[in-house]
Description:
The complex is a heterodimer.
Chain A (H helix, E strand, L loop, with lengths): L9 E2 L2 E2 L10 H29 L6 H23 L7 H23 L11
Chain B lengths: L16 H30 L12 H26 L3 H30 L1 E12 L2 E14 L3 E7 L15 E2 L5 E2 L11 E7 L13 E3 L6 H28 L5 H4 L1 H31 L1
Amino acid sequence: MANHSVTTDSHGSTPVVGQGHGSHDGHDIGKAIRTYLIIFGALIVGTILTVWASYIDFGTPSINIVVALAIAIVKGGLVAGFFMHLVDERKVIYGLLIATVFFFSGLMYITLWSMEPLSFIHFK
Amino acid sequence: MEIPYTAHAREDTGLYNAKVGIWLFLASEVMLFGALFSSYILLRVGAAPGTWPHGLLNVPLGMTNTIVLICSSVTVVMSWAQLKMNRFDRYRIYQTITVLCALIFLAIKSFEYRDKFLHYEVRLKETEMVNGHAVNKVVDGHLVELTTNHIILHVLKHHRLPGAAGHQAAASVTAEGAVEAEHGAGAAEGEHHEIRIPFSDIAVRESGKLWIENYGPWHNTYMAIYFTLTGLHALHVIGGALVIAFILWPGAKMWQTDPERYTNRIEVSGLFWHFVDLVWIFLFPVLYLL
Lengths: 124, 290
């Protein structure tokens, strides 16, 4: 197979071949692979930690919920940040995600708000 | 007309079209799963105290599936990195492992589903007093035999019961008729009993049907949201695996004609796959552990 130059195309000083990284020579990819393996290890540790923490009696179950969700958020952050390349992405994607975070938070806020005794929409 | 920006990025955004497309799609997916997570919260908070089931699912299986999905996410990024280095053969190896991981995940999930469909709750005519109320005794176990006049259930002596405190589904009857509501002991350590229950002993619902019910989505709100969330997630696994397998085998010709566009396809399908992994990272603790 001919040497497909899939990574070195650039316009001016900014490389624009989609992935949002700088240049992708073998060295950079090697570094990226090392990062992926570290994240892999962290995710496995996080999974074991989640299961382990769920059996700890903190006195109140709400602490277990907070701990489990905190670990899940960290794990999710690692997946989104490194596997999905969000640590180094283009502005358009960030803009899109800010909107997503806004609407998702709104949804969760409405959910929690609906459980307040004085709230307008009251389910309990 | 040719589709623009399939391989090279637009100058103003620095992105090729498919990447913008997949992120827009993922944003809508966040809201889809978000709505279901919101339903989960409301169902759980709205449940009568002590009735939300705990320990109904098999944690080691759920944890195994979590690890399987994490492994598949790693093989996806590794395969993409291999393509970036023009190592098509290694890319193929990694993506084949991804597809295998998807199949393992689905196999384990189907086993778990099957287990729930064979797990039965039978309410007896016989009642007992719980917190001053007469409630039907309950036998909870796995189906051994169901005929036209009796049901045989495999009951675990130390079965971990849902909402054991003061709820009518709380008490389980062993072969000796002793009511048990023990907590904590894992099912694996349990002692096995087979109980034959004649239909004449089983309570009758208002509809006239016998009170025999398996743990399908109709059983309670927990099972309903469990099947909805994991079912939707499993559909995503199937969809993602189909796309990855398509690009890997029949769609691989593009590597010869347009390698940049091909590599972008790997990245875009990978972004979807990581999202599916990310959803499971939240589903696992929420449904299995909390």
